[in-house]
Amino acid sequence: MKLPDLTELALRNLRESFLRNSLTTIGISVGVASLVAMLSLGTGLQQLFTRRLAKSGLFDTIYVSSRREMRGMGRQEERNGPIPGQSRILDEVARVQIQHLPNVSEAYPDIRFATELRFDDKPHLTTVSALPQSAKSNDAFENMQGSFFSSETAPEAVLQKSFAEELLGKTPPLGAPEPNVSELAQPLLGKELVIRYAQREVTPGETPATGGTAGGDDFAAASYSVVSREQKLKIVGISDLDPESMRGPTRAKVFLPLKLAESLHVMQPTDLREISRAASDQPAYSSISVRVKNPSQIQGVEDAIKKMGFTTFSILDASRSLQQVFKVLYAFLGIFGSLALAVASIGIVNTLVMAILERRREIGIMKAIGASDADVRKLFFAEAGAMGIFGGVIGVILGWAIGQVINFGTNIYLKSQSIPPEHFWAVPWWLVAFAIGFAFVVSLISGLYPAGRAARLDPVQALRYE
Amino acid sequence: MGETVIRAVDGVSLQINAGEFVALLGSSGSGKSSMLNLIAGLDRPTSGSVIVQNQDLAKLSREELAKYRLHVVGMVFQSFNLIPSMTLIENVELPLRFAEVDRGRRESMARGALERVGLQARLNHRPSELSGGEQQRAALARALINRPKLLLADEPTGNLDSHTGTEIMEMLREFNQTLGMTVVMVTHERALAERYARRMIFLADGKLVDNRPNSPFQSNQPAAEARR
Predict the structure, then answer these.
(1) What is the pTM of this model?
(2) ipTM of this predicted complex?
(3) Chain B neighbors of A4, CB-CB under 8 A
(4) Which chain A residues are Cβ-neighbours of B72 within 8 angstroms?
(5) Does residue A358 belong to the interface with chain B, where contact is any CB pair within 8 Å?
């Protein structure tokens, strides 16, 4: 029999005992729904984590530093003098070079320094760090009060919550509840902050010495002078990010726009050593953050930077083991989700065996008028397969709906705990196709025994059956 | 204990020629239906052979037997055996589905067969909506649809009153004469056999007791042969 005929006859037979076949189909759809629910939870969680991690900048960022920064080795190199190609200075030239490597979206210097800030004429000592405009999408600034820097050169500052508390003299005692960020923002936003810092100024006419010993201070003193400066800043935002969290470039309490920070030429600890080797007045950096366009390209970029003679660091391995964890989670959820489908498949066997008893005579008639064993077997397979596909489609819809409801419910709970809502439920297309296909295959396997039994039926006996 | 072997048909040797109209007669349990099932390829002999059109049905595979039933044999039963969930035209079309005939041709063929038995007004009725005579006519149309060489009828009038029974018998005769089909009919009504069959074969307890022509003329072409 041809496939369209098989399908037509199978559907007709399914309609004949509508209630029983519907119940079996519902059984399959519940099984598929549980499978879809489990796997979409797994997918959703993985997407949530990946999204979070991508936003945190941990997984697409490479930290580049000069080899001289490495402990022990640096000292030896200084003694032996620079080895070309091995101990390059991390200066502006190198930064531009890295920026132009393929798959690099940006490379910016990590500028961080401790300095004095004046607010209401009271001095506060703290760490200042510079941020590129792209940090705006970083999840650390998700719940920020106020706004991000209006431009990369704007004389503006974003404060970390605990520093804001310090400025207002509201630092809570240990263990006491933290004050709300918006309360802190109210009196601070738009106010002026004065930053006092030491500027590095290269003294013209003097050639900086090359090589030298660890005691770089003498050379430094000879090549540039340090001038004390002040810069007024406007407070535009208060961030509630935790300064102790694992965010390399953001472990500071006051943030400035990157270009502004660069233009200040603030003395940095590395200057003392690096300047002794720098051939020009190009700024040298202690480290650079390199963001790649896609976390998967991180290895290639890292290798390229290493070849240039720098030390690199990224959290690539952590992301690898995370993927491993999700694979195990998937398998686990998949097995539990499949259990209900396994139970449903027993329902299919039962329904079809019943159908054989009921339609015994019909099978006999079909055989008497020329149906082969294969025709009868295929017909039962088609019925099992059709139930599988219907059950699969309904199950996917059901599973999706369950996911939506749980997502909705959990978000209501999260909201009541004042945690921002999350979308941790995802039904990707491959899961839809897989679930329906899986239900189809499971149904066919369940149909194996009943179909074989129907095909082997003796027509003479079947016709005698009333 | 051990099993008692019941021989439904035992030591029967007979030959049926192409184009013949043969009646198998006997009381119930005489083995006439078993004989018919052997010729129909629904059953296989435990020993001996059933040769139809030069091929031994006993040696055919299940698949080949199904093909034989589909293309060589048409069957009519006492209880009509139409599929209750299908309309008449669907019932008649069913063998064509197994024969994988194109959908377009199928419907016109089924329509033609039903017109031939006078049921053109009942195409979309279900068997339960029809009288016994109409159901048997539909079963005849289904038996004819694949143009079989051999039409086997198992008590075709058994569930019908004498008037409609005669109608069916007239149709069997017509197919025998105009289409050249060999008809083998199982019946226990001797009068019916005498009126329509050209040869009558009597069975009792699975054995052949008599085999005699009912009409003066006979074809000499052997078509079906059963020996046991």
Answers:
(1) 0.67
(2) 0.89
(3) 103
(4) none
(5) no
